[in-house]
Amino acid sequence: MIEIDHLTKRYGPHTAVEDLYLQVEPGLIYGLLGPNGAGKSTTMNMMTGCLAATEGTVRIDGYDIFEEPAKAKAKIGYLPEMPPVYPEMTPREYLSFVAEAKGVQKEMRGGQLDQVLRVTDTAAVQNRLIRNLSKGYRQRVGIAGALLGDPEVIILDEPTVGLDPRQIIEIRDLIRTLGKKHTVILSSHILSEVRAVCDRIVIISKGHLVASDTPENLEQLFAGSRTLELVVRGEEPAIRAALAPLRGVRRLQFGRREEGEQSLTIETGPKDDLREGVFFACAAARLPILGMETRKASLEDVFIELTGQDAPLPKGEAELSDQQGEEGEQP
Amino acid sequence: MIAVYKKELRTSFTGMAAYVFIAFVLVFAGIYTMLYNLSNGYPNFEYVLQSMSIIFLIAIPILTMRSIAEERRQYTDQLLYALPLGMTRIVLGKYLAILTVVAVPSLLMGCYPLLLSQYGEVSFATAWGALAGFFLLSAALAAIGLLISALTENQAVAAGLCFVVMMLLYFMNNLASFVSDTAAASLAALMLAVLVLAVLARMFTRSTPLAGLVAAVGCGGLLACYLVAAERFEGLFDRVMESLSVFERFYTFIDGVFDLTGVLYFLSIIAVALFLTVQTMEKRRWS
Predict the structure, then answer these.
(1) Region A289-311: what's the mean pLDDT?
(2) Complex ipTM, two decimals?
(3) Shortest Cα distance from B137 to chain A (angstroms)?
(4) I need a labelling partner for B219 at 20 to 30 A (CA). Which of A224, A226, A324, B170 fits?
């Protein structure tokens, strides 16, 4: 559906997006995730032809956005970060302008207008001035504008920023509904949001694409190890001796010690479960276990690791590429 | 293009700009008609047009200031870039909407000679010819205003800059006549003009080599011409400015000459201004 190839944007010496590759398949909801300033908006602006790329191409359904902009843009509905609505118009006037500008046939215009007003739930405010509408409704009017002309791809840049919690939930539901008929790409810096809505997560950091996969896969791939967090009453040497015979311990790390209670973490392989072994070993050595917890790498960890300050391309990325070579990570 | 045109027209008539422009022009037309034709009894409507052409200094900025600058301020320019329309069509749509507003007072003023003919002999040909010139002048100035609106970030700056440019255009001739008629003074003034042009080229393209080339070729060429035929340079700056002056072209129409080169001149001003507007908008894609 969309092929992004070698996409690069430089502002003088500053590189906003560098050498981005991505294949967007039809019918899925993509979440572009990254910290603020990672290059999400820049990427989206280039995908929609609002911004020229320094290098690289974007093809929408085979049409190059820079070479054949009219054909490519007709397949895209775009909602920029700030909804591009005219405050002195009513939603109905605004939408009929957008429909006409997008070249929707005159006889179909009325029907499409009513349809997008219904889908985005803006019919009730269609004759009020946009100036007087709340941010949530402006956002919806913006989305309605993006939907006009029935584009195959809907691109939404931070669609839920500045909305109250109830509106956020409504917009997410709306996005899910859209995802049934369209390919949707949305950007966000909020992980839970992308997780809740998207079929695919694309993580961007400092203008680089660092991962692109389903939420589940990302979690699994990064669950390269499992950690067991323990609090044991006893001395460090004694605990070390008791755990020594256990098989499958990759790393043993001792942490704080408070009033005879020693906290420690045991790292194991992703499939090993050492809980029972640890229990019996400690019991046999008469070292009471006061607390035990298993932790798997969560999407948060993945995100933090991938976008961390010191590690623009962490080693986890290489693992990802090995196992998911075709998904479009860059080496 | 028609969609943009309709939207722009509606916006200008829901806001104040169009009404203010039309009212402003008509009020001045009324005052001057009263003064020249009715009180003093001149049969020449074209004098009215000539005297009132100074109001464009204010009327044009009012009309054009918001056109593109406002789109940028409220982030709706993103919509324009994302639409499957070329920038040329968007700019043309905007310009045609402005042109429609500009045409309203000209059309209404077309009735004045008819009214005046009730009280005496009126030369319709010169009156309407001058009115056509008046309309062309306002169309050309509006295109320049649109370009200035595209160059700026907000409408106040656009209005201010537009006013300054209109004023320069209006007084260009008077200013040029301050330069002494000697060949050397003409050369100096022309070289200064070339340098200004080079600075503008630098601002537009951000390419120092190009600006340097413009300056070098321009100044070098002038100097060479000066060395070959210095006597030709006497009063040259004045003549160049006069033939470039937008208002000076319009005064030819006032004199009762329907000057086809003048028409062509106005049309080229419009074409160049619109072309530069489109290029300015396109350039923003890159920054």
Answers:
(1) 72
(2) 0.86
(3) 30
(4) B170
